[in-house]
User: Fold this.
Amino acid sequence: MRLRSVLVWIALGTAIAASACSATETQSGLDCDPGSDSDSDGDTDGEADAGSDSGADTDTDGFIANVCLDPGHPSSDGDKLWESIINRKVGFYLEDLLRAAGYDVLQTTDDIDEETIFADDFDNEGPAEQAMLVVTSLESRTDDCNAWPADYFISIHHNAVTDTSVNYTLTIYGEDSGYEPWFTGALDWASITTDYLYDAMNVDGYQTWGDRSALGYGLWVLQNTEMIGILTEGSFYSNPDEYGLLNTSNDYLYGEAEAIFAAFAEFTAG
Ligand SMILES: [Zn+2]
Assistant:
């Protein structure tokens, strides 16, 4: 049996995560991507659609369901350009896996195409390559998924903190103001994803959080999407060994995508 550890950080987690997150924002950045909290303008009311797809049937287009993939960044000029490229690579691999399984896929970013990003001479760190990235606001990302409309949402990220020894897998789901998941099943999906990512990645730990419990605020993309969703932080690229793996091994990135896909398949089958 797979590990099923679900760490829902209510009190302790709030303190740990909040301090890590604020530290990042001011130093070199835990990858919190807060956007802005949507409390003031009303959170999504899309709960009615939660978990409505069994994964067994196909929709009118012949697809099992619609999956919106959101490779993180840049959401402002110069925002995490290297991570943006790594996120896109995992996103393309994940799209291929989902399409092969009968899902339709929409990506929230449309700058570097798949052939270009996987070309042998593509340099993740190259200024010319990074200049291909187009800023995509968090609002446009969630708007695209809502308008499609998507049945499932997956935002793909990699994490960073100032302590370079840190390297764990983290999966986050969105919580309402009462610290309950916006969507039934989101915690289960997130925890399954954490388990698979922990197996696939070269990390030494794993956590699953609700955004508000962990961070003290809601993450834009999880608060403003009207379908069940998760945000993955597969590993910490601030760890030098991990950075090397992410930067040089597309096979490693494919393994990450396979983990996210396997978790999605297990969750939707359940
Ligand atoms: Zn990120």
